[in-house]
Fold each of these.
Amino acid sequence: MQDQSRLQSLSGILYWVALVLSVALPLLVLVYAGKWVTDPASLLPRAPGLPAETRVTPTQAGLVAAVALVSVLPMVSALRGMVRLFARYREGDVLSAENAETILQIGRALVLVAVFTILTPTLQALILSWNAPERTLSVGLDSGTLGFLMAAGLMTVIGWAMREAAALKAENAGFV
Amino acid sequence: MSTLQIVVRLDVMLARRKMRSRELAERIGITEQNLSLLKSGKVKGIRFDTLAAICTALDCQPGDILEAEPAP
């Protein structure tokens, strides 16, 4: 089947992309976290609303780095789910209950990514403004985050639909 | 009212026609494994085209292969 071979070949490429990203992303955040902890002043550009003379303590830098490390976990979870999904797609295993559950897991992880996209800058700005004369608390919701939420919702619905399709396939397999 | 269950009498028709399972499986284009499952009744159902192929190969009617009997 042409559609199946197309699905398998593209999944083969996406498998490697997801695998590389699932390793590179946490490493990149770790590098940034290390840089922030060793040089707290490098964090100031992350909170443009703060006065330039604001002093960032190592504790604040550590907290900002910790928030960044925690906030990357849902994305890593989504990418690990994609690695598993694309590995099965690449082998030609398309309509299975395992795939449906993996898609649902990716959808849930993407919802968390969107939530963290909103909360992380807010928390980091709050931590960085702790010693400033005026504390800053800004919550932002842009079109990108909304798009992420929509994509996460779509993935969840597709996961449910895949679950139905896998059940139908299993039932069909019982017919000779 | 007692419920009925459908049983497959394929082995009876195969014996009457002196045909082996392997030959029937080849003629109707399904695997011997699936034919064995069908004979033992370990399938959820049978497709109309499979039934038609079996009836053509064994020169019989669906009623010669399928039978309803009281469920235990």
Note: DSSP finds four helices and no strands in chain A.
Amino acid sequence: MDAREIILARLRAQQRDEPHPPAWRSRRHFPDLIARFGQALEEVGGEFLRVANWEGAWEALGKVLDDVGAKRVVVNPDPPLDRFDVAARWPTVEWHVVGRDGDVRSFAREADVGVSSAVAALAETGTVIVASGPAHSRLAVLLPPVHVVLLPASRVTVDLFTWVAQWRGASSPLPSSVTLITGPSKTADIEQTLATGVHGPGRLIVVLVEEGGE
Amino acid sequence: MSPVTLGHFRAQARQALADPFLQQALAGATAHFREGRERALAELPDAEALRDHLKAIRRATLARLADHLETFERRAQDAGAVVHWALTPEEATRIVVQIAREHRVQMVVKSKSMTSEEIHLNAALQAAGIQPVETDLGEWIIQLAGESPSHIIAPAVHKTRQQVAELLSRATGQDLSPDDIPALAAAARRFLREKFLLAGMGISGANLAVAETGSIVLVTNEGNGRLVTSAPPVHVAILGIEKIVPTWADAAVWLALLARSATGQPLSVYTSILTGPARPEDVDGPKHMHIILLDNRRSTYVGTSYEEVLQCIRCGACLNVCPVYRKVGGHPYGSPYTGPIGAVISPLLFGLDQYPALPHASTLCTACVDVCPARIDLPRMLIDLRTETVEEQLIPRVDGWAERGAAWVLRHPRWYRWASRMMRWLLRPFIREGRLHLPPRWDPFAGRRLPAPAPRLFRDLWERGDV
């Protein structure tokens, strides 16, 4: 018998009927989802910018790029960013648009900022959720020291439980990589002293677009 | 490794107690985690009910573990991952080395994994001529120092900033100041960034695995878990067979309690959900994904009185409240698994004859049960293991007699009363100003001044109706 058979046989010999508990339902009720999201994000060290529409979003992004002094920016054109030509708005910046401009790896390691959208966000914990795909490089929002998320307000849900219930209801398979991001990269491994940006981005900036569509 | 005997544990514990930096670091870190946990759970509308729910999930999952493992295997394979099964640590390391050789890997990057510590993976890789690089800052520090982790969550809690600066200066060839901790972290970022991009393979553990989608879930705060599983062309994940849940509804409960119980964060900074290797349409990510399911005796405890310990989600909350761990730290345990949970699983996974001291390294105060997100009754199992150490004569005869004597006295109320009186009489000469002052060579309390026994026995007060 190989290891697999031995392990399964041992477990089967002890198998017993025990009802599995039903799914836990979220017990959170936030009067203002967006306000809670922003507050939770700031509590974990993220930066929260709230704008009315996409024009406001570009203005906010422009300020961030200026502030950082960004020369090289990589963008994951996740929906709905695929509807816009983000790169054309800042012709002085060197852009890499994932899915259009070839090898992202060597560009992303030298980039100052990574820009993406998010498939969902959790109000309870201030979390944004990104997913891999043809328009979303994992490294593009991981290697640069700053990650800017342009997030339509409609994508904010209550918590982990409501998020899981939503996509378990849909039948599409999980992307190969889904990442829940809750604040900037941090460590307290040296004398319990907080240091940010140790491997991932040291700044996480979420631009929440109120009338951002779906 | 020589067994962790009572003598070994006591000697190591004495050393730890005599180290003022360690005492301060342990007190600071464990208090920080304890307060964080309390705040985070208080902020939940229903923490106690959620803990009960997690307990029910863990118990029910173990009852049908074979089914869930088979579902997980099938779904992970559907997603393109290769699933391996390992009965022993040696089998697991052999599989990892073989995968590395097939891909002609010379250097691997690792994210923090207790399971890889359990199987001594780094030693096996080095023996095979493959260089392992730990990338969690704390793990990297102790790898550079050639030590073992002293806390499940904070592996380098015992190192001073001066020691860290020295180790990192040597590794990076720079002159780094101990007084600028962000600069130390930045130096580590630059140095390890190159390793991530050059490594032929990434090795991670998994905090949990989800059967319905064949996914593994990995949490880190630094982002090294994301890099290890995104940058190299091959990803190998190693996990114990018990770290599985059937559905995402279950996984959400686990995740809602994991970081809150560990550090007091609502979620760890990064929670990576990985389902197979990169798809053909993906822009990047590993081309190959291997998952190793490690048994190492776990399956032999299902259906026994020790099954409950397999409900553990490895948050480390029990370490932070344990009066023994908080004073002696992780090293006296001589195992990657330390504190109350380590005192139970180290003997179970590696043999009680290797760890006879650990079941005794506890006051049985039950603080660990109070904070465990799965409410695991560790003291019950510690007592069972103690019984085994006495019956199998794994502890010195004198300690065995003491245990047997105590058991006998506790079973006989008259003798218990007599022993209580006797003890008070014997201690009387050593009481000054309401405190016990034992001569140093008999003093088991390492210089702490315990309060003197109360003037009258509680049972006497009770019998006379004075309470």
Note: Residues 54-68 of chain A form the longest helix (15 residues).
